[in-house]
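Quick note —
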Amino acid sequence: MRPLVRAIYYTTNGATPTTASTKYTGPVVVGASETLRAIAVASGLNNSPVASATYTINAGTGAGPTAVPTFAPAGGTYMSSQSVTITDATAGATIYYTTNGTTPTTASTVYTGPISVTTSETLEAIAVGSGLTASAVVSAAYTIVPPTTATPTFTPGAGTYTASQSVAINDATAGAKIYYTTNGTVPTTESAVYAGPISVAASETLEAIAVAPGQTASKVATAAYTINTGSPPPLAAVNDPNGFPTATDFSLAGGATVTGAALQLTDGGNNEARAVWYLTPLNIQSFATDFEFQITPGTANASDGMTFTIQTWGLPHVAESAARSGIRVSSRVLR
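Predicted structure written out below.
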């Protein structure tokens, strides 16, 4: 004999029903998605196990949602522009999409064909089928990173040369345009456009970039050229307050010597004509003297003197006439 059910108790909020829960008195109206749970209670018996039933209500249709759209190619990082297609598995579904980060609705742009993605952006889309609810929103983020143009190269390369150089600039990227400077500024697309070899007649630094269509600018290429035509560079200053340790910087004429860190032009004899010339050109912008020297007359009526000569031509063949007595220069300043 079946036990007589005394009562049924139920819940609609997911809680476990007890005899304190709502007592079932007739059909329960399920107007939205929810889960019903119930127990039965009979006299002289233990309560029944909990029964559970989940209901999903798609309001207004009685049918499920439209399938979620898909993107091809999928979102990701690409080196060039992409042509993105959006498809949906629900036959006849209309696809709506946005590209500005807003959530698409049925008021958004209707998809009619591939979307050109030329810069980094995010596509979002929904699909709505006839008699169905809208799909969930789906998105795809595209990062467009164009390739970088190859760095230009210089021929001949940077270095020290004894004559003017004709420098060519090349780039490995087809169709790249080269921009360059010669004044130490960083080149941009507003700089001089390279059209042929550059004549480098004096020491200078060339800098260049290259830009190809659809690519970002290359790194800056730099080449420093030193043009040395054979003559040693002029000295900026001459200053030997402690004397002259060697004679390697001088041309000693007529028997002049460097003795004890001093220039000795005569040694006490008569009619001596000796001179000292610097081997390296001097860049003389001003002239000042600060000398210590010793004069020892050879005879009672001897005359002594010293001559400083500045010239732009080479060393003389004959030393200028100098003092007959001992004149020793122990320090001097030429600026």
